[in-house]
## 1
Amino acid sequence: MPLSIDSALGLMPDALRLREQRSELLASNLANADTPNYKARDFDFRAALSSAMTGQGALSTDNPRQLQPADSQGIGTPVQYRIPGQPSLDGNTVDSQLEKAAFSRNAVRYQATLDFLSGRFKGLMTALKGQ
Amino acid sequence: MSLFKVFDIAGSAMSAQTTRLNVTASNLANADSTSSSVGATYRAREPVFAAVFNSLRPDDPTARVKVRGIVESQAPLQKRYSPGDPNADKNGYVYLPNVNVVDEMANMISASRSYQNNAQVLNTCKQLLLHTLQMGK
């Protein structure tokens, strides 16, 4: 069986990258909680992960040695505007509580993905050492 | 690493909220600064925030915050008859700033809550990055 580190890690690296991009976006929403006319944004994590897994958005290649462009690490799904629960007069649609909850949840899931990834590495090390 | 960008984003928000707190402190401190003419009287100030997107990468959805400017309130000034005041004009009137203390207190609480939110975001990201450094160990 040829050992490929990439396939051994599965979807974890993609999930970790998307969690990171989502926390960046949510941090941006929270930072602009008092900026007039700022619209809160977010993306559908499930759609982003499945597009990363199926390789959508990547250029098709006929040789594995052909490289992808450097900025192909996008989100892979459109970033959408949040529908405001309580629109405010200054045109801002950030709900601090909602964003904070989403940020915390995202941080915990980042941590979980990180632990799974760590577990995979430990498994690989055990297999390599054969002990 | 995108998580490093969170430091920039939350940091810019904390800096903007600090400006807001400073302006509020200045307004509250000068709430009773009388003056002898309309032009020389202190007017309540307010910072205006704006979102800054990355102009080099239009597909980047994240935005930092900057203070676009500080505007003075155009609300009418109060005039009070107080001939004993050293600031009084020749008719015995002094002008009072248009600072609304209740507004300023609400502004102060809002700014400090926003600051706390961003400080928490910063801390969470720091923890996540430190854990990421330990990956596989």
Note: The interface with chain B takes residues 17, 20-21, 23-25, 27-28, 30-38, 41, 74, 79, 96, 100, 103-104, 107, 110-111, 114, 117-118, 121-122, 125 of chain A (CB under 8 Å).
## 2
Amino acid sequence: MREVDLAVVGAGPAGLSAAIEGAKRGLRALVIDRNPKPGGQLIKQIHKFFGSREHRAGTRGVDIAQDLFREARDLGITLMLGWEVYNLQPGRLQVVRSSFGETSDESPEASIAAKKIVLATGAEENAFYFDGWTLPGVMGAGAAQTMTNVWRVLPGSRILMVGSGNVGLIVTYQLLQAGADVVAIVEAAPKIGGFGVHAAKIRRAGVPILTSHTVVRALGESRVKGAVIARVDDAWQPVVGSELTLDVDTICVAIGFRPNTRLASLAGCRLTNSSVLGGWVPIHNGQLETTVPGIYVAGDVSGIEEASTALEEGRLAGIVAASAMGKTSEHDQQQLQAIADRLCSLRGGPFCQPIQDAKSELVELGEEVCPKE
Amino acid sequence: MSKGVAVNGFVSEEELERSPGYPSKERMQQGPVVVIECPQEIPCNPCEEACPHHAITVGEPITNCPRLDETKCVGCGLCIPRCPGLAIFLIDLTHSDKRAAVSIPYEYLPLPHMNQKVTAVNRAGEPVCEAEVIKVADTKPNDRTAVVTVTIPNDYAQEVRGIVRLGGHHG
């Protein structure tokens, strides 16, 4: 059995950052990810990031992934890519080669002993149930983004985007860059969900954003041949007679994410529900430790946010996990304070203040119910 | 009528006039100056660092809207490719008697070439006039955000914020 100090599940911004901070303090760190490439969702983020210098603002996500990977490699962190965790408990994880894993004569199964575990398992896309939603050609916006930017396959040539949050707006832009036409974005709310600057980019590219509109039906027998959209009333119901048929071959759904909490549940971490944070989230204290001692969470699994906050939470988890093993570095206190300050400023403003409030509430609950030393 | 960026997806005149990132009409008449179309409080500040003349301030908290000091802006346009929101443009009303120059961030391939005649669009993506490309900057520091400068008839300078994509099915 392989033995490490810190096992991190998920090689996205939170997971790699946690491993990096742990390794910097002398921990033997291991990162496990079922995907063949490190970087999590960063590898498909071809746009320049928001935030400040500490969050690599102005740098494209895919380049941040490269830098994190290099830093992890240079620190001697072991990356187990193409491996999936199928069971865990404090101190121990069991992994199996994922469908992306390489073919090899070695056993497709392994056990790992780890003194501390960070779960940085990210999020999954929410589905939207409308007539025809199971037809080929209906997909998550994130899936379309993976196809286009990671595997370089354009999912369609005439696309309807459902949802105008930042993901809907950014993926629309990237589909345009890849050469597709996005016929329209429909948004059930009366206002655009994402940043105005993202909306402005695609508006001047000629894409209409229809607020107070939703998709009612996908047309087609064996795959999407069109979409029927309609205006919605104040009760979010389609207005009879307002239907419009759009000539599209693809419908992308970008209506939000939920934390990927399966491993946290499996480990026995207590969850709580927060609509602002995306649904069920593991309860954690200010140190990101869950109700199961020795298991931490960081990034979207602890509440849906941005890559910038995932980087910070990952750093925080790595530092506190190391500290719990007696491995500290001189400036830990200043660094923890700086992270807290940056998280606080990222969670300000009209877009992010609700997240700050929900996170504070979650941590308050965590301080109450998480076991003390 | 104009309802602003949260409903229409592009900024209204009223939002621009209220925005601390927008220069005065007088300043625009004096020569090239940037316009920052970023009226929402979002956590972002690369523009602040991008300006060698310290003409842009975000400060603390990072969700402040960028503030332009129009007396310090020399119209170099270095901030344009650094804005992750592609929300900064350069306007030069003094380009010639009849034509203004507008520089826009552009991330589509193929890039236009010098002297190419293209169709300029407004914030809603509607074609408004013909434009002529006079510069395409795609240097390494731009990091794949090209800055395309076009000339257009003077009257359209406050409207034109893009060009029709050359690679798309519309182009």
Note: Chain A is about 30% helix and 25% strand.
